[in-house]
Model the fold of this input.
Amino acid sequence: MRILELTLWAANLDELRRFYTAVLGLDEFQPEQPGLLAVTAGHTTLYFHEAPRGWQGQYHFAFGVPPDRFETALRWQRERGGTIASSDGKTSFHHTAWNADAVYFRDPQGNILELIAHLDLDEDFEGTENRAGIDTFLPPDTDRPFNASEIIGITEIGIGTDSVLETVAELQTRMLGIPIYDGKGSDQFTAVGDIYGLLIVARRGRIWFPNTGVPADHLPLDILLELAQGQRYRLSAPPFPISIRPE
Done:
Protein backbone atom coordinates (compact mmCIF):
# COMPACT_ATOMS: atom_id res chain seq x y z
CA MET A 1 0.00 0.00 0.00
CA ARG A 2 1.29 3.46 -0.87
CA ILE A 3 0.25 6.82 0.52
CA LEU A 4 0.10 8.94 -2.64
CA GLU A 5 -1.31 12.12 -1.10
CA LEU A 6 -1.60 13.33 2.47
CA THR A 7 -3.34 16.56 3.49
CA LEU A 8 -3.03 17.88 7.04
CA TRP A 9 -4.06 21.11 8.73
CA ALA A 10 -1.55 23.70 9.90
CA ALA A 11 -1.78 27.02 11.72
CA ASN A 12 1.24 28.72 10.12
CA LEU A 13 2.10 27.79 6.53
CA ASP A 14 5.06 30.18 6.28
CA GLU A 15 6.73 28.57 9.28
CA LEU A 16 6.22 25.09 7.85
CA ARG A 17 7.36 26.19 4.38
CA ARG A 18 10.73 27.23 5.80
CA PHE A 19 11.08 23.95 7.68
CA TYR A 20 10.04 21.50 4.97
CA THR A 21 11.86 23.24 2.12
CA ALA A 22 14.84 25.10 3.60
CA VAL A 23 15.60 22.73 6.50
CA LEU A 24 14.54 19.31 5.20
CA GLY A 25 15.06 20.13 1.54
CA LEU A 26 11.75 18.88 0.12
CA ASP A 27 10.65 20.34 -3.21
CA GLU A 28 7.72 22.75 -3.11
CA PHE A 29 5.26 23.26 -5.96
CA GLN A 30 2.29 25.53 -6.48
CA PRO A 31 -1.00 23.70 -5.89
CA GLU A 32 -4.13 24.56 -7.86
CA GLN A 33 -6.10 25.28 -4.69
CA PRO A 34 -5.17 28.42 -2.69
CA GLY A 35 -4.37 28.19 1.01
CA LEU A 36 -2.20 25.08 0.64
CA LEU A 37 1.49 24.37 1.11
CA ALA A 38 2.51 21.49 -1.18
CA VAL A 39 5.80 19.54 -1.11
CA THR A 40 6.90 16.21 -2.54
CA ALA A 41 8.42 13.43 -0.44
CA GLY A 42 9.27 10.48 -2.67
CA HIS A 43 6.07 9.03 -4.10
CA THR A 44 3.92 11.14 -1.71
CA THR A 45 2.57 14.64 -2.18
CA LEU A 46 2.28 16.27 1.24
CA TYR A 47 -0.18 19.15 1.59
CA PHE A 48 -0.72 21.44 4.55
CA HIS A 49 -4.10 23.17 4.59
CA GLU A 50 -4.24 26.57 6.27
CA ALA A 51 -6.31 26.15 9.42
CA PRO A 52 -8.50 28.78 11.07
CA ARG A 53 -6.77 31.15 13.48
CA GLY A 54 -6.25 29.55 16.89
CA TRP A 55 -6.51 25.98 15.60
CA GLN A 56 -4.22 23.52 17.40
CA GLY A 57 -3.46 19.95 16.44
CA GLN A 58 -0.41 17.71 16.23
CA TYR A 59 -0.12 14.80 13.81
CA HIS A 60 2.17 11.81 13.67
CA PHE A 61 3.54 10.63 10.31
CA ALA A 62 6.66 8.90 9.03
CA PHE A 63 9.03 9.25 6.10
CA GLY A 64 10.39 5.95 4.79
CA VAL A 65 14.13 5.82 4.03
CA PRO A 66 16.23 3.08 2.37
CA PRO A 67 17.44 0.49 4.90
CA ASP A 68 21.06 0.81 3.83
CA ARG A 69 20.93 4.59 4.34
CA PHE A 70 19.43 4.79 7.82
CA GLU A 71 22.64 5.62 9.68
CA THR A 72 23.41 8.40 7.22
CA ALA A 73 19.80 9.63 7.41
CA LEU A 74 20.11 9.62 11.20
CA ARG A 75 23.09 11.95 11.05
CA TRP A 76 21.23 14.16 8.55
CA GLN A 77 18.25 14.43 10.90
CA ARG A 78 20.34 15.16 13.98
CA GLU A 79 22.02 18.04 12.16
CA ARG A 80 18.56 19.56 11.76
CA GLY A 81 17.54 19.21 15.40
CA GLY A 82 14.29 18.45 17.13
CA THR A 83 15.20 14.83 17.94
CA ILE A 84 12.88 13.26 20.51
CA ALA A 85 14.40 11.09 23.24
CA SER A 86 12.74 8.30 25.19
CA SER A 87 12.45 8.46 28.97
CA ASP A 88 15.79 6.63 29.25
CA GLY A 89 17.54 9.04 26.87
CA LYS A 90 17.56 6.96 23.68
CA THR A 91 17.22 8.90 20.43
CA SER A 92 17.18 6.07 17.87
CA PHE A 93 15.25 2.83 18.07
CA HIS A 94 15.15 -0.65 16.60
CA HIS A 95 11.60 -2.03 16.51
CA THR A 96 12.18 -5.76 16.66
CA ALA A 97 8.65 -6.83 15.78
CA TRP A 98 8.76 -4.72 12.61
CA ASN A 99 12.49 -5.26 11.90
CA ALA A 100 12.80 -1.51 11.46
CA ASP A 101 15.04 1.33 12.65
CA ALA A 102 13.55 4.73 13.48
CA VAL A 103 14.25 8.21 14.78
CA TYR A 104 11.59 10.73 15.84
CA PHE A 105 11.61 14.53 15.69
CA ARG A 106 9.28 17.53 15.59
CA ASP A 107 8.47 20.17 13.06
CA PRO A 108 7.95 23.80 14.20
CA GLN A 109 4.25 23.22 14.91
CA GLY A 110 4.83 20.19 17.09
CA ASN A 111 3.92 17.44 14.63
CA ILE A 112 5.67 14.16 15.44
CA LEU A 113 7.78 13.17 12.43
CA GLU A 114 9.66 9.94 11.99
CA LEU A 115 12.34 8.55 9.71
CA ILE A 116 11.86 4.77 9.46
CA ALA A 117 13.84 2.12 7.59
CA HIS A 118 12.21 -1.29 7.24
CA LEU A 119 15.12 -3.69 6.98
CA ASP A 120 12.97 -6.25 5.17
CA LEU A 121 12.92 -3.92 2.17
CA ASP A 122 16.42 -5.16 1.24
CA GLU A 123 15.20 -8.24 -0.62
CA ASP A 124 12.43 -6.33 -2.44
CA PHE A 125 14.86 -3.80 -3.88
CA GLU A 126 17.24 -6.21 -5.65
CA GLY A 127 15.72 -5.63 -9.11
CA THR A 128 15.35 -2.46 -11.12
CA GLU A 129 11.95 -1.76 -9.64
CA ASN A 130 10.05 -3.20 -6.68
CA ARG A 131 6.35 -3.93 -6.45
CA ALA A 132 5.71 -0.51 -4.92
CA GLY A 133 7.06 1.12 -8.07
CA ILE A 134 10.10 2.66 -6.38
CA ASP A 135 13.46 2.75 -8.12
CA THR A 136 16.25 0.56 -6.76
CA PHE A 137 18.31 2.07 -3.97
CA LEU A 138 21.78 3.31 -4.72
CA PRO A 139 24.61 1.10 -3.42
CA PRO A 140 25.44 1.60 0.27
CA ASP A 141 27.75 4.55 0.82
CA THR A 142 28.11 5.73 4.39
CA ASP A 143 30.28 8.65 3.27
CA ARG A 144 27.74 10.03 0.81
CA PRO A 145 25.57 12.62 2.60
CA PHE A 146 21.87 11.87 2.84
CA ASN A 147 19.40 14.27 1.27
CA ALA A 148 15.64 14.54 1.01
CA SER A 149 15.56 13.15 -2.54
CA GLU A 150 16.27 9.72 -1.03
CA ILE A 151 13.05 9.66 0.99
CA ILE A 152 10.87 6.84 -0.35
CA GLY A 153 7.59 8.49 0.60
CA ILE A 154 5.36 8.97 3.60
CA THR A 155 4.93 5.44 4.90
CA GLU A 156 2.85 6.02 8.05
CA ILE A 157 0.05 8.31 9.17
CA GLY A 158 -1.53 8.21 12.62
CA ILE A 159 -5.32 8.13 13.00
CA GLY A 160 -6.93 8.74 16.40
CA THR A 161 -10.18 6.95 17.21
CA ASP A 162 -12.45 6.15 20.14
CA SER A 163 -12.52 2.45 19.13
CA VAL A 164 -9.46 0.97 17.47
CA LEU A 165 -11.16 -2.37 16.88
CA GLU A 166 -14.19 -0.82 15.17
CA THR A 167 -12.09 1.48 13.00
CA VAL A 168 -9.77 -1.33 11.91
CA ALA A 169 -12.76 -3.55 11.11
CA GLU A 170 -14.24 -0.76 8.97
CA LEU A 171 -10.96 -0.28 7.11
CA GLN A 172 -10.69 -4.00 6.41
CA THR A 173 -14.31 -4.30 5.30
CA ARG A 174 -14.23 -1.29 2.98
CA MET A 175 -10.75 -1.81 1.52
CA LEU A 176 -10.66 -5.42 0.35
CA GLY A 177 -9.47 -6.99 3.58
CA ILE A 178 -6.40 -4.80 3.95
CA PRO A 179 -4.25 -6.69 6.49
CA ILE A 180 -3.19 -5.91 10.02
CA TYR A 181 0.56 -5.45 9.75
CA ASP A 182 1.83 -6.77 13.09
CA GLY A 183 0.01 -9.74 14.60
CA LYS A 184 -3.59 -9.29 15.70
CA GLY A 185 -3.33 -5.68 16.85
CA SER A 186 -4.94 -4.44 20.03
CA ASP A 187 -7.66 -2.10 21.27
CA GLN A 188 -5.01 0.57 21.89
CA PHE A 189 -2.84 0.50 18.76
CA THR A 190 -3.05 -1.36 15.46
CA ALA A 191 -1.07 -0.84 12.25
CA VAL A 192 -2.97 -1.62 9.05
CA GLY A 193 -1.25 -2.09 5.68
CA ASP A 194 2.30 -3.17 4.84
CA ILE A 195 5.89 -1.91 4.96
CA TYR A 196 5.24 0.41 2.01
CA GLY A 197 2.37 2.19 3.76
CA LEU A 198 0.70 1.93 7.17
CA LEU A 199 -2.31 3.47 8.82
CA ILE A 200 -1.44 3.70 12.52
CA VAL A 201 -4.81 3.45 14.27
CA ALA A 202 -4.47 4.54 17.91
CA ARG A 203 -6.95 5.09 20.72
CA ARG A 204 -7.56 8.77 21.43
CA GLY A 205 -5.42 9.93 24.33
CA ARG A 206 -2.70 7.34 23.73
CA ILE A 207 0.66 9.16 23.68
CA TRP A 208 2.65 8.82 20.50
CA PHE A 209 6.00 7.06 20.95
CA PRO A 210 8.55 7.93 22.28
CA ASN A 211 7.63 9.99 25.30
CA THR A 212 6.29 12.79 23.08
CA GLY A 213 3.49 14.02 25.32
CA VAL A 214 1.31 14.26 22.20
CA PRO A 215 -1.89 12.18 22.30
CA ALA A 216 -3.62 10.59 19.35
CA ASP A 217 -6.77 12.56 18.63
CA HIS A 218 -9.49 13.29 16.10
CA LEU A 219 -7.73 15.54 13.56
CA PRO A 220 -8.81 16.61 10.08
CA LEU A 221 -6.96 14.90 7.26
CA ASP A 222 -7.27 13.56 3.74
CA ILE A 223 -5.38 10.54 2.40
CA LEU A 224 -5.18 9.04 -1.09
CA LEU A 225 -4.06 5.39 -0.90
CA GLU A 226 -3.13 2.89 -3.57
CA LEU A 227 -3.26 -0.82 -2.73
CA ALA A 228 -0.87 -3.39 -4.18
CA GLN A 229 -3.57 -4.54 -6.63
CA GLY A 230 -3.96 -0.97 -7.95
CA GLN A 231 -7.22 0.03 -6.26
CA ARG A 232 -7.28 3.57 -4.89
CA TYR A 233 -9.20 4.88 -1.91
CA ARG A 234 -9.75 8.33 -0.44
CA LEU A 235 -9.84 8.49 3.36
CA SER A 236 -10.91 11.72 5.02
CA ALA A 237 -11.95 13.24 8.34
CA PRO A 238 -14.24 14.72 9.47
CA PRO A 239 -16.50 12.87 9.94
CA PHE A 240 -14.46 11.14 12.60
CA PRO A 241 -12.72 8.84 12.91
CA ILE A 242 -12.49 8.39 9.09
CA SER A 243 -14.62 8.09 5.99
CA ILE A 244 -13.61 5.80 3.11
CA ARG A 245 -14.55 5.87 -0.55
CA PRO A 246 -13.11 4.36 -3.75
CA GLU A 247 -11.37 6.73 -6.14
User: Anything to note?
Assistant: The CA atoms of residues 142 and 208 lie 30 Å apart. The chain has four helices and 14 strands. The two ends are 15 Å apart (CA to CA). The domain at 2-246 is CATH 3.10.180.10 (2,3-Dihydroxybiphenyl 1,2-Dioxygenase; domain 1).
